[in-house]
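Newbie here. two chains, one complex. Structure please?
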Amino acid sequence: MSPRIARGEAKSNGEGNGAATEHLLALRGFSKSFGPVRALHEVDFEVDAGEIVALVGDNGAGKSTLIKAIDGVQPPDSGQAYFDGKRVRINTPQVAENLGIATVFQDLALCDNLDVVANLFLGRETISHGAGQLTLQLDEATMEHRAGELFSGLAVTIPSLRSEVGTLSGGQRQQVAVARSLLGEPKMVLLDEPTAALGVPQTKQVLDLIRRLRERDLGVVVISHNLANVFDVADRIVVLRLGKVAGDFPVEQTTEEHVVSAITGVGGNGGERAAEDRGEGEEEE
Amino acid sequence: MSGATGEAAPAANGGSGAVKETTRDTVRRFIQGDLASLRVVIGLAVIWIIFQSQNDRFLSAENLTNLMLQITAVGLISIGIVFVLLLGEIDLSVGAVSGLAAAVMAVLNAQHGWNPYLAIAAGIAVGLAIGALQGFLFSRFGVPSFVVTLAGLLAWQGALLQVLGSTGSINLTDPKITGLANTFYSDAVGWTMAVIVIVAYGALTLAGHRRRLAANLESEGMITLAMRFGLVAVATIVVVAVLNSDRGVPLALLILVAFVVGMEYVAKQTRFGRHVFAVGGNVEAARRAGIGIEKIRVIVFALSGTMAAIGGIMAASRLLAVNQNSGGSELLLLAIAGPVIAGTSLFGGRGAVWTALVGALVIGSISNGMDLLALSSAVKFMVTGGVLLLAVIVDAIARRQRQAAGRV
């Protein structure tokens, strides 16, 4: 008997595949096992453009497995994915990138010995025209110019585009990593623990940046342990517990208490109750 | 901003809204190794002053010319080592490879009568092939580069003995080959080259400045650029004047400087160089950015083997012979020690090709000075070992300071 899935949003009520095409990303029945361990079990999940979805849950609840299934690092054993209304099969990170799904990893994957511009363009450097092209000469001026535009558009504050990334604060590094993910002009950004280990002002900077991603009409998925941050920034909170969706709450219609009880599974099915309290619960099929 | 980030790497400059640097920042950067260039220049000055005070022939034009000839082989080998160090790896085979490549060239030219240029090309090809093989074994099977190249050190030394055959020594008589290390240009040619270098440097600096302005980026002030240009111009003129007052500008030095400048360009301004720094800084980040790690590693080790071969050929040209000791004794350690002394990190991701030249100059000066003072081999080995140890400790301290400051 699986825990009930509470859905607050009207558009989620239609559970068929037809409804899945209305979302930017919709997953249906995603399952993934590692040997005998069921990391994900029949997970349905969707993200809209211009929406920030927070993915919360205890350690081992399946958050990272779900993210890896979305960005192609670890394809699911079964389940269907729809992106932009089309059925897709995200087998490799390359497929995800081509679709427009960008991931910012928790460890940021930055080279501390390189400057901000070099990190932004790593692996997709701009090459000079003319004679320099033969030697694949870097077009530093163009890259720095583009980096400057990108950062001012995002209102990101960095001491200098030429500072070594290793000299930046945790918040600045996080902002660089997020900006880097935007260079490929994605439609959706996955952020793994973007505010972990950040101080209060830095956390605020990063949350502001996440909101600006929403303003750009990107779909944003944020994994976080920090419920205060989640309630601060997210539109919707999806709770995973033991590899299953244990709750799906619109932020303005729920409380931290309900989310916590859905995460821990203590106090009955918090997710269901949260929705039913408002008379919006959906009966189990 | 003006010159706040310009010191450590000439390529890195500009940026928006940089903070004004205080004296304390400068001291901190000095310790953390960002101002390694300043550190090594001070070190070199101290060494020169000490030896000059002990023997006034040390800074004579003749001895300085000899010094340049002495450092050519080590400097060239060090250029390849710099790239390997940037990856955070090590190549212990460069000494043996340099000897083997020179032996192949010598046998083909002196015993088989090959055209000297073909023989030189064959020697270089041997170095390239060996380097590529070692790079492949390292990157494909994940064997630590230390072990692969240590095995190579032994194996290629054996190959050297095999190639040299029963005589154990081959004299070089072909003027094309011996000319590499024994050609000096006339005063007029020397001054012409100086003018070309100065004009080219000025033109490139100006072009870079214009490009940044055209892209609407802050550039360093004209005063900073003019000062750096003036420094390069004065240095070039002094070097040519000193060399001209003895035998003239040696071809060997030109070869060394040309490789340093060319490889510095590759390291700092091309996509390949950027990827080498990235792999050395954070392999995982480089992989996720889509950089072909294996390819970069194989190319870097091939480059190291190639530069070792070129250095070995220059050494053979200077000695007029290849023997069983070619590429042996302390050559390997000096080639690695030089760049490290001058600021290229053993831990990867930090360094510059010019450290090969300056490092060779530091080590060469010490060795040359001790020869002038007629010190015994015992003392020379101990002093050189001590300097190497000191350089590595300074590198480790710089790294620890960076980590303490939250950098890696």
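Moderator note: The two ends of chain B are 25 Å apart (CA to CA). Chain B touches chain A at residues 1, 5, 11-19, 211-212, 214-217, 265-266, 269-272, 274, 277-278, 280-282, 284-286, 288-291, 349-350, 402, 405-408 (CB under 8 Å). Thread marked as resolved.
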